[in-house]
Amino acid sequence: MAGVVLGVGSPEGGDRLGWMVVERLTAQGEGRARLEALDRPGPALVTAVVDADFAVIVDAVRSPAHAGPLHRLTTTEQLTEPSPTSTHGFGVAEALALGERLDQLPPWVVIGVAIPDGSLPGEAVLAEAVEAVQREVVAFSAGSAGGVRG
User: pLDDT value at position 149?
Assistant: First the structure.
């Protein structure tokens, strides 16, 4: 089994960001991981990663603009801090916490992309997010990523 890159979001506004990263990676021919866009998966996120060797999850997050556009999150504690937070109700943090309790997670990392005003980020931030995901895939594939072990 290979790793998986999940773009989490919805078809509207800045929440589409995760899908856009997956679309870019697909267009670039990323072949080291399965690429999938998920529409607010809730607990189904665990099912999407359970058989993978690793998971890189891309999601839009609410965060103060001064904190920077990208957040590399590797623990559920980081995901449940007041900022950054998911733009979903039962979101990535809750799904990963559930997966940890069920002992069903591969090594994982979340790349959170800040959308302070709810709109899509500019081209430079989108390109930076794609590059960040590619770096994580390469590191996991080489066995040197810092993701959490499930």
Answer: 41
- Of 25, 26, 23, give the one whose Cα is nearest residue 11: 23
Distances (CA, A) of 140 to 54, 89, 108, 137: 7, 29, 9, 5
83: CB partners within 8 A, 6+ apart: 62, 63, 64, 67
Residue reference for tokens 């960001």: 17
pTM of the model: 0.85
CA angle, 119 then 23 then 18, to 5°: 40
Say which amino acid occupies 39.
D
* pLDDT tens per residue across span 80-117: 654 444 444 567 888 898 888 888 899 999 999 888 77
Interatomic CA distance for residues 59 and 129, integer angstroms? 10
CB 95 within 8 A of CB 46: yes
DSSP 83-99: SSEESSSS-HHHHHHHH
